């Protein structure tokens, strides 16, 4: 999650609040730990819980998510066995979460893909998906700092459901699209509105792709753990106040349609990330507009100073932290 001066920003994607319990769907993560050399692959033992080291369970597994996804069912079956076994769990406090996917071939984004977000702007609902991109260098982990660039004074928040591709494809039919999906995660499409809307010929790319402008994670929830990706609550809170609250059923173009559309133009590869759009409530359309600032935030009303949070859990919100800093 992002932090603004004097504000705490919490983003949540969830289908339902269930009692806190052992998680049997797979929540794949990339992590580091002081006693381990380099990034490793893991599984959250439960929502918001510790991490099972998949590379310790099977040293032949790759150590990056993209390589893991490229091997398809062979590696997924190993992860399922690890989840079913009684394995040691690294305490959450002893690991550093990376983005669940790093250095993908592409980060595809979709503009104005929520009906209620279009109404907020008083613009017509698009008849075709509006596609733009972020560079992969904008990706950071859910606990990493988000750098507010000196070139922009209008940095804004956008909570989004992200789709992670698991199988290579081109000219994919909508009816076949879910076979190409590995799972889902939460994304923050941090946006410099001055560069998006006023500069660079009003092309969106530069305003969307500053370094650190794409926090992801913490977990890639496999698609079998998400009953309906188009019936998820999606919301964002600032200092306890809900500023974005909607449901993914408001998407104009659903996951299958987006994959079919994008794959007309480009080949999709394992690890590619598709940000599916944001609901209403962003800062730029508030009166007056509200933008993110540098610093740690007050938690709630009169609460202790604390960083902001970025959350993902389709059942119990698992919260991670980022803070905004100046470049």
From TrEMBL:
Its cofactor is Mn(2+). One of its GO terms (molecular function) is oxaloacetate tautomerase activity. GO terms for biological process: oxaloacetate metabolic process. Keywords: Metal-binding. The keyword Metal-binding applies. Residues 106-295 form the Fumarylacetoacetase-like C-terminal domain. InterPro entries: FAH, Fumarylacetoacetase-like_C, Fumarylacetoacetase_C_sf. Belongs to the FAH family. This is Fumarylacetoacetate hydrolase domain containing 2A. It comes from Equus caballus (Horse). The gene is FAHD2A.
